């Protein structure tokens, strides 16, 4: 294994670009938006230096980026794009078309707050806005995971039982712009892992013309949506299988979520993305003080692993869910609502915390205060905020 | 150049079984245009009448490969298809020869899709963008588009007592495309099938992007007899509202000059959407419209080198 990997220092954006270089997709559509911009700068360098043979389309908007990616993917090639925040929002209409046409597009999303007011820093409101678009959503804690998730995403999206577009996310600036040491596979090993892409259907089969994106009325639309659900239903099996193969190759373990000191925990926090790293520190500190704290870092938000999650949480006294996005008028953040639904019928108190909107730092003291609430039995229906001036 | 007889013998790519109204000029456009294709074809369509009538799942009126994505992005979609094609060719994974045509209605082209069209033309994809211009959003119930002519009554510009129809002239999209410096731009009409066929053939042989704007009446929207589709497609040209010309690498050329320029009224009259213009109180609107057409026509004549003096 050792000779197949190397340890290098890269930013999150560079690490994802590196994974994309190794995959060498056929077509990439690009449009700049902070904090994703540098990801595609790096990739464009690979294109222009001949390190990949990708055809790059520098489109005039994200709407066209996703539209061109749909056109390319429907033509039977590996097609990618990447975006953030308003760019993702501008793609919204076409995200549904990508999944409705069952196109295995892979798209890194560098998480950023949605306007307005204008803000370029990290939160998860962009991905959450797309949560019902029929895309698989995989979150990353750090640069290493952003790299690893990118490679795995192709295998998941392209699996014949899944055939769904997949977005992998990394927290804007916190991961995208932080240089970290990570382990990367050598090109051969990465390529072997990702494999060749054989499309199930293509517009460019001269012997078999096809019609894609037909008008789908009362007669069939419902059935087609049901088939999409089937792809989502099959995804967990594939995500696990791909994770296992990745473990064999790299020694790094990936599933729907990571349990951190959870098995003997009394109370736990659920969180996604880079805040998991901070929370782990706090769990360790609390453990040193003799408090039985634990954590779950959710990796796969769509399809939501409700059964596994409910099982993993079943022994706890109470649970706090930390959301880096807000759902106006709802009882709590999107992750909270999902967790609460997964735990329906169980009597464990679950409470909602909103943190880090618009790039507000997530500090250890915030995770600690949530834990304090849990251990003091202050886990109620009230949605709370961490690090907010009231 | 294929004659109509020869064309009629070719297998239709846009074939029977679609659900367009009888006498639908856009459907005739689709058929005539695709008849000129002699390679494999991937056609794209923006949302609109032609998409809706030709691909009702599980049926399709397309013998070629076909993709519909959304209303405003057919140019970007075909950009992606054409790019994928180049990627596959480069890697030696495909050797078949293909043509790529993005079709859009005027709404999907002049209005909501203009950005995507402009982007695709600027990037130089090897594709033909063909707009079937029926001068309104017909699929959603005859609303005005920026291609709707001055004075026309539509469901968003009704011939009211205070405001009589559309108050603005039609946008000159063909000129906007010329300004993109694409190698081939043309205007055509299904009333002149040989001219249309020739233009499509030229456009498809052009390396890089090309654009053709085809006047294609909608008898529902224009309030004409379905049997008169070709008549009005011809009259639009003979009244010089819709001149037939092409711009090849920036050089303008009229491809048809009416022997005698007919008064605009001949095109207007009989179209229910212009009935109110013939009321005495709207006489000045008729004049305004005629003046506009004259000026545009004379300017085009000057651009084509047919007259020396640039009209004032
Ligand atoms: C984003 C979006 N807005 C609005 C619509 C509704 N819509 C569908 S077709 C259409 C009009 C199409 O007009 P045009 O492009 O001129 O084609 P036609 O129907 O006249 O053939 C509209 C407004 C849509 N499908 N998508």
From TrEMBL, chain A:
Might you name a Gene Ontology BP term for this protein?
carboxylic acid metabolic process
Answer yes or no on keyword Glycoprotein. no
The gene from which this protein is expressed is: porA
Domain annotation Pyruvate flavodoxin/ferredoxin oxidoreductase pyrimidine binding: ranges: 19-242
Q: What superkingdom heads the lineage?
A: Bacteria
Named from the GO MF annotations, one term is: oxidoreductase activity, acting on the aldehyde or oxo group of donors
Matching entries from Pfam families are given as: PFOR_II, POR_N
Alphabetized, the UniProt keywords read: Oxidoreductase, Pyruvate
Checking PANTHER family in the record gives: PYRUVATE-FLAVODOXIN OXIDOREDUCTASE-RELATED
User: Matching CDD domains, A to Z?
Assistant: TPP_PYR_PFOR_IOR-alpha_like
Q: For the Pyruvate:ferredoxin oxidoreductase core domain, which residue ranges apply?
A: 265-364
What's this protein's name?
Pyruvate ferredoxin oxidoreductase
User: Mind telling me which InterPro entries this protein's record contains?
Assistant: PFOR_II, Pyruvate:ferred/Flavod_OxRd, Pyrv_Fd/Flavodoxin_OxRdtase_N, THDP-binding, Transketo_C/PFOR_II
Automatic annotation (TrEMBL), chain B:
Pfam families, A to Z: TPP_enzyme_C
What one GO molecular function would you report for this record? Answer: thiamine pyrophosphate binding
Query: Which key words tag this protein in UniProt?
Result: Oxidoreductase, Pyruvate
Q: Where is the Thiamine pyrophosphate enzyme TPP-binding domain?
A: 47-214
Query: Which BP terms does GO give this entry?
Result: small molecule metabolic process
Q: Which domain of life is it from?
A: Bacteria
Would you tell me the protein name for this molecule? Pyruvate ferredoxin oxidoreductase
Organism per entry: Abyssobacteria bacterium (strain SURF_5)
């Amino acid at each position: 294994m050792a000779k197949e990997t190397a340890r290098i220092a890269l930013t999150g954006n560079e690490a994802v670009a590196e994974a994309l270089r190794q995959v060498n997709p056929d077509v990439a559509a690009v449009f700049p938006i902070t904090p994703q911009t540098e990801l595609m700068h790096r990739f464009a360098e690979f294109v222009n230096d001949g390190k990949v043979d990708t055809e790059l389309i520098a489109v005039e908007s994200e709407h066209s980026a996703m539209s061109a990616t749909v056109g390319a993917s429907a033509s039977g090639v590996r097609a990618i794009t990447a975006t953030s925040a308003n760019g993702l929002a501008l793609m919204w209409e076409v995200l549904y078309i990508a999944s409705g046409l069952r196109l295995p597009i892979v798209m890194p999303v560098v998480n950023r707050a949605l306007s307005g007011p204008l803000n370029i820093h990290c939160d998860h409101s962009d991905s959450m806005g797309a949560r019902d678009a029929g895309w698989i959503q995989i979150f990353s804690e750090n640069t290493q995971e952003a790299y690893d998730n990118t490679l795995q995403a192709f295998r998941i999206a392209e699996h014949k039982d899944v055939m769904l577009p997949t977005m992998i996310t990394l927290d804007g600036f916190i991961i995208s712009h932080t240089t970290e040491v990570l382990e990367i596979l050598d090109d051969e090993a990465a390529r072997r892992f990702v494999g060749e892409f054989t499309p199930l259907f293509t517009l460019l089969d001269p012997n078999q013309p096809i019609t894609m994106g037909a008008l789908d009325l009362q007669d069939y639309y419902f059935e087609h949506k049901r088939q999409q659900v089937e792809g989502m239903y099959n995804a967990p099996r594939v995500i696990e299988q791909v994770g296992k193969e990745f473990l064999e190759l790299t020694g790094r373990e990936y599933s729907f979520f990571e349990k951190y000191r959870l098995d003997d925990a009394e109370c736990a926090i659920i969180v996604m993305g880079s805040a998991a790293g901070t929370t782990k520190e706090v769990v360790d500190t609390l453990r040193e003080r003799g408090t039985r704290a634990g954590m779950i870092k959710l990796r796969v938000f769509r399809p939501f692993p409700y059964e596994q999650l409910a099982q993993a949480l079943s022994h706890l006294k109470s649970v706090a869910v930390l959301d880096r996005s807000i759902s106006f008028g709802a009882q709590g953040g999107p992750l909270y609502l999902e967790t609460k639904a997964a735990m329906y019928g169980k009597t464990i108190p679950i409470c909602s915390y909103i943190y880090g909107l618009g790039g507000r730092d997530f500090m250890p003291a915030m995770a600690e205060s949530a834990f304090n609430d849990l251990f003091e039995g202050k886990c109620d229906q009230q949605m709370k905020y961490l690090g907010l001036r009231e | 150049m294929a004659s109509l007889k020869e064309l009629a013998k070719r297998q239709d790519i846009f074939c029977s079984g679609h659900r367009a109204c009888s006498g639908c000029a856009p459907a005739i456009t689709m058929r005539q245009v695709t008849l000129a294709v002699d390679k494999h074809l991937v056609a794209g369509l923006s949302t609109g009448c032609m998409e809706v009538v030709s691909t009702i799942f599980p049926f399709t009126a397309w013998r070629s490969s076909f993709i519909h994505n959304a209303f405003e992005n057919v140019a970007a979609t075909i950009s992606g298809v054409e790019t994928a094609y180049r990627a596959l060719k480069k890697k030696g994974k495909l050797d078949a020869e293909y043509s790529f045509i993005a079709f859009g209605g005027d709404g999907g082209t002049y209005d909501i899709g203009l950005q995507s069209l402009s982007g695709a033309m600027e990037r130089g994809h090897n594709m033909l963008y063909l707009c079937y211009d029926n001068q309104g959003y017909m699929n959603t119930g005859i609303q005005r588009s920026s291609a709707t002519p001055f004075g026309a009554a539509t469901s968003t510009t009704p011939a009211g007592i205070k405001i009589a129809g559309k108050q603005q002239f039609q946008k000159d999209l063909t000129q906007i495309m010329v300004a993109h410096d694409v190698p081939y731009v043309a205007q055509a009409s299904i009333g002149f099938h040989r001219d249309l066929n020739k233009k499509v053939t030229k456009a498809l042989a052009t390396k890089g992007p090309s654009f053709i704007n085809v006047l294609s009446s909608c008898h529902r929207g224009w309030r004409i007899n379905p049997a008169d589709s070709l008549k009005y497609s011809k009259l639009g040209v003979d009244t010089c509202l819709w001149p037939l010309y092409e711009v090849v690498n920036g050089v303008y050329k009229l491809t048809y000059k009416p022997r005698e320029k007919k008064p605009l009224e001949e095109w207007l009259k009989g179209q229910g959407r212009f009935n109110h213009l013939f009321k005495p109180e709207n006489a000045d609107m008729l004049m305004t419209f005629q003046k506009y057409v004259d000026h545009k026509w004379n300017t085009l004549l000057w651009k084509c080198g047919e007259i020396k003096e640039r009209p004032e």
